[in-house]
């Protein structure tokens, strides 16, 4: 059969897609570089042209996911027309929505494999580090506007993101739908206390899509 030549970006994405699929099927630890190249049908030298190791592939997959997550978050956080309170409502609705966009669940499905806990945690740690400065800027805006009352916006942002991502992640805590729903109902009062806001500003009905 004739050799199929692909442009570098296309080949790189193929390696990432294949590795991600194998991580979901076999788990990260059980997937070898030889498994990835065999699945694609290329030599190991092709793999090492793009990546130094399987660990570097995992980091690249996580970076790709972070870019996907960061884009809509950045648009909201950087919106010059909204108050900080309005931004927080939108951000919370985005996170709590059961419909986060086409392909969202599929893109993160591999993280739910029992042998991929370290990858999952790595994604959350990098997400917190990437998102916290943006969220801290929203908090600082809220303080200036008089709606929030906090003294260390970055620390609060890191605490908020870490707790939010771990606590509501059913893949970590194995919440049932009912258990997760109960916790979502508590989010409003927790956010109000954390940001020093008036009670009721983030009541559950205000965070549901279509409510104000």
UniProtKB/TrEMBL annotation:
Keywords: DNA-binding. InterPro entries: Homeodomain-like_sf (IPR009057), HTH-type_Tx_Regulator (IPR050624), HTH_TetR (IPR001647), Tet_transcr_reg_TetR-rel_C_sf (IPR036271), TetR/AcrR_C (IPR049149). It holds the Pfam family TetR_C_39. Residues 9-69 form the HTH tetR-type domain. It comes from the Bacteria. PROSITE patterns: HTH_TETR_2. Residues 32-51 bind DNA. PANTHER family: ACREF/ENVCD OPERON REPRESSOR-RELATED, ACREF_ENVCD OPERON REPRESSOR-RELATED. This is TetR/AcrR family transcriptional regulator. It comes from Paenibacillus oenotherae.
